[in-house]
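As a warm-up, study this chain.
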Amino acid sequence: MATQRPGAQEWVPPDGDVTALRAAAPGCRGCELWADATQVVFSAGDAPARLVLVGEQPGDREDRTGEPFVGPAGRVLDEALAAAGIAREEAYLTNAVKHFRFEERGKRRIHKKPGVAHVRACHPWLAAELAAVRPGVVVCLGATAARAVLDRAVKINEVRGTVLSGGEVPVVVTTHPSALLRLRGQGGWDAAFAELVADLRTARDAAR
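Now compare it with the structure written out below.
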């Protein structure tokens, strides 16, 4: 039986600002994902920020560069942010899980969805980031991010585009940009992209 890891809490500096959190994150051993990843991928953006965008986990490109949302999904997100009238510099970008989970197929590293245990183990980092950044609205990009922020499973199509209140910070749930990549050049891309942009505009307006 595998040893149960305690999660990230012991590596998270108490009352740390974003700079302190970024400096401490490479030492985290709260789950096993650090062992195979190239490096921790923490966040991009400054505090405070009106919007925090939370994704699932770094991808292959992010794992190699150490920066979030710099791969193909990041380019889709940049297009959607621009269409929604949001400068990327206005937002703080992070992920629910800070290390890349993957499986090797030949020379390729293929994304593997993080488990609930990984999301829970990494949650102390996300909670500390939200406390440090103090956003007006949190945007959850995909179901994994929504689980991390809301602490429950949600169906995106049932809640997307609405401002969910009741917690410490209002939340908007939308599709992860990576889901749109499969639609590019096919039917459905325009509608899916328009929905993502509309959700981002909802978050932008709520943050004001």
